[in-house]
Amino acid sequence: MTSVGHLETNYSVCRDLALQAANANCRMLFLPECFSLLGDHHSVSIEKAESLDGPAMARYTALAKELGIWLSLGGFQETGPDKDHIYNTHVIVSDKGEIVAKYRKIHLFNVDIPGGPMLLESRFTAAGEELVTCDAPVGRLGLTVCYDLRFPELYQKLRFEHGADILLIPSAFTKPTGEAHWEVLLRARAVECQCYVIAAAQAGKHNDKRESYGHSMIIDPWGAIVAKLEDPLATGIAVADVDLGYVNRLRATMPIEGHREMGLKALSGMRQ
């Protein structure tokens, strides 16, 4: 999707996507970072931020209950610890309309991109401090947001210490960084963790200052892309089946979890 600076417009698009997913008999829909709002200045995010029990989130929980579908809301402007900062919060909503998990983005995007914008997320966003997983009809989810993708140790912990089957990476990747790194990093996280990766992405021009790379995709634990939009900048859904039996068979055939534990013990001994 291509979010803009208007809550009503974005909700209308999200509702349409949820209807498409429900009509396709999907159990769960995954929306990108900034699904509800992407303004032309960080002050818009601060001004529109709400608590998770506020009216903005209530519309999405009601939507999930109405359609009987789980929602991954990839990055919501949650009221932060002070008046100058928000949390960038990934929220999981059940088909009963209940919030079952929330993850506040840990790694904040502070970069000056050659040929692109200078973005200082920490100027208006406070970092989270907790890893989050939760169980859903499609498997055990590991929650992250966008820039987290560049930090593999986060995904290693979600997989090997918290039992994730599916890694969620909702994003609003910039065009320059997306062209260079988006797909290769997503496929790497899938392969090294032997997990499905679901990467819902913002796409296209949001305003005069901001453009996102798009290319939403679903990747299986062997690193194969199993679903993506035919038009990588289009608004729409890509649908795939998650086969947890395949995950388990692959992990049994190539037991990297045990090999990893042996490697960590060896490295620990070397440090001593």
TrEMBL record:
Keywords: Hydrolase. InterPro entries: C-N_Hydrolase (IPR003010), C-N_Hydrolase_sf (IPR036526), Nit1/2_C-N_Hydrolase (IPR045254). GO terms for molecular function: hydrolase activity, acting on carbon-nitrogen (but not peptide) bonds, in linear amides. Residues 1-244 form the CN hydrolase domain. Pfam families: CN_hydrolase (PF00795). This is CN hydrolase domain-containing protein. It comes from Ostreobium quekettii.
